[in-house]
Amino acid sequence: TMARRVRNDTEVAGCPMKPGDMILLSPGVYNEAVNIETDNLTIRGLDRNEVILDGEFELENGIRVLDTDGVVVENMTARNYVSNGFFWTGSDNYRGSYLTAYRNGDYGIYAFDSINGLLEHSYASGSPDAGFYIGQCYECNAVMDDVISEYNGLGYSGTTSGGNLYIINSRFNNNRAGIN
User: Fold this and answer.
1) Prediction pTM value
2) Cα 92 from Cα 130, distance rounded (Å)
3) Under a CB-based contact definition with an 8 Å cutoff, are residues 31 and 52 in contact?
4) 29 forms bridges with which residues in the sheet?
5) Which contiguous run of DSSP H or E holds residue 15?
């Protein structure tokens, strides 16, 4: 297992990463923790059910996006991480689409101190804290649309959040509490 950091000066497969790039992930199981520090980067799996990030109950976060603008993560699964499946912190203009997060140690899909975001068409299950979290932001300017959260401690948690924060077209089933 290893942690991979993607920054402006990082090379992936011999190619330097820079803002505006797209990383396509082929189907497979990846036992990695990835930290993203490059603005305007898109990370896209080719098949949501077959691109699987697996923390093997040892790695902290599947994908952690740190202090960025415009990072998109889409079309993949994160499971078995000690903390979070997908995690944005200190980010602006973020998006998570077509994500599945299950059996992670804290949160499934987590946006902390991040603004102007969209979490959509995603599923979270089996997190002891919350399946989805958007919090520590005001004005959040965020939307959760078409998400399903089930069998978590909380379906959605939003500590110290508000200001143009919308949860629409979503379901919260069989959680200890639905929306908190």
Assistant:
1) 0.92
2) 22
3) no
4) 52
5) strand 15-16
Cα separation, 68 vs 152, in Å, equals 28
Q: Mean pLDDT of residues grouped by 10 in the chain (180 residues)?
A: 49 65 96 96 97 98 98 98 98 98 98 98 98 96 98 97 96 96
User: The tokens 């011999």 sit on which residue?
Assistant: 14
Q: How far apart are CA 141 and CA 80, in angstroms?
A: 30
Cα(99)–Cα(131) distance, integer angstroms:
12
CB 162 within 8 A of CB 135: no
Query: Quick one: tokens of 49?
Result: 């059910």
- Measured CA to CA, the distance from residue 53 to residue 135 in angstroms comes to 24
Q: What is the pLDDT of residue 15?
A: 53
pLDDT at 10: 53
C-alpha span between 132 and 88 (Å, rounded): 12
Rounded CA separation 125/116 (Å): 24
The reported pLDDT for the residue numbered 17 is 75
